[in-house]
Design goal:
It holds the Pfam family BCA_ABC_TP_C. It contains 10 helices and 10 strands. With about 260 residues, the protein is an alpha/beta fold. Bound molecules: adenosine-5'-triphosphate.
Length: about 260
């Protein structure tokens, strides 16, 4: 069963076709890797899925319902969470506060309730705390919950970003280059976290340059080149695919 379906997706910028009639599906519960050499169209696809760009043609549907035309916050609210290439944490808040603040937008207690600290609000506050605790433990950064986010090691900051996204109960999480800037050990830990997320029932779309990470964690991989899908398959199939090898050899041999 598919959670997300991308069909005939096309986006042009002036005379340049950044994404051209791209089709792929993400199955419920899988880790799908989206890769391609520089300028292949990965970021554009990502922006089309999350509603930052509108496609010129084609469709994106979440659980059978088109999200094209919806604002990014509406798409986020319908169950697609994302992380950013650059870190966007609240540096002067603690780790725990960063996660809890992300969930407050979803809490139901209104203005009167907050003024009078109703029982309902206390209950919600407790639930928010419990979710934050559970997700921080999952990402193995619970022990630094009282540190300011800006004081965390780089790898932990990236994990915290993922936790913030997880705490909004997404059906699908899109990770945008999560291994960027990580050292080998941190990348290894990240791979473990991505698999743990999938095992907890959340579908993952992974957009990533680091080929060893993509090959290691993805159940399936979609490859873009010059805005077009050139291959789709298991990591083994992709590794042996002539078109993929050619696309990478022409551009960034070292990555492959
Ligand atoms: N806002 C924009 N305006 C004009 N051209 C754009 C815009 N965004 C992307 N492009 C162009 O579209 C093509 C695809 O770019 P995109 O950023 O989606 O590729 P990418 O696969 O994410 O590349 P990278 O791995 O380098 O981030 C490139 O030729 C790029 O220059």
């Amino acid at each position: 069963m598919n959670i997300l379906e991308v069909s005939q997706l096309t986006k042009t910028f002036g005379g340049l076709t950044a994404v051209s009639s791209v089709d792929f599906n993400i199955r419920k519960g899988e880790i799908l890797g989206l890769i391609g050499p520089n300028g292949a169209g990965k970021t554009t696809v990502f922006n089309l899925i999350t509603g930052i760009y509108q496609p010129d043609q084609g469709d994106v549907s979440l659980e059978g319902k088109s999200v094209v035309g919806s604002k990014p916050h509406v798409i986020a609210g319908s169950g697609i969470a994302r992380t950013f290439q650059t870190i966007r944490l609240f540096g002067t808040m603690t780790v725990l506060e960063n996660v809890m603040s992300g969930q407050h937008v979803r809490s139901r207690a209104g203005l009167w309730a907050s003024i009078f600290q109703s029982r309902q609000q206390k209950k919600e506050e407790e639930q928010i705390y419990q979710v934050a605790e559970e997700k921080l433990k999952l990402a193995k950064i619970w022990h630094v919950r009282n540190e300011l986010a800006k004081n965390l090691a780089y790898g932990d900051q990236r994990r915290l970003e993922i936790v913030r996204a997880l705490a909004t109960f997404p059906k699908l999480i899109i990770l945008d280059e999560p291994a960027g800037g990580l050292n080998e050990q941190e990348s290894f830990e990240l791979m473990g976290l991505i698999k743990t997320i999938r095992d907890s029932g959340i579908t993952v779309l992974l957009i990533e340059h680091d080929m060893s990470v993509v090959m290691n964690v993805s159940d399936r991989i979609v490859v873009l080149d010059n805005g077009e899908k050139i291959a789709e398959g298991t990591p083994e199939e992709i590794r042996a695919n002539e078109k993929v090898i050619e696309a990478y050899l022409g551009k960034q041999e070292d990555d492959f």
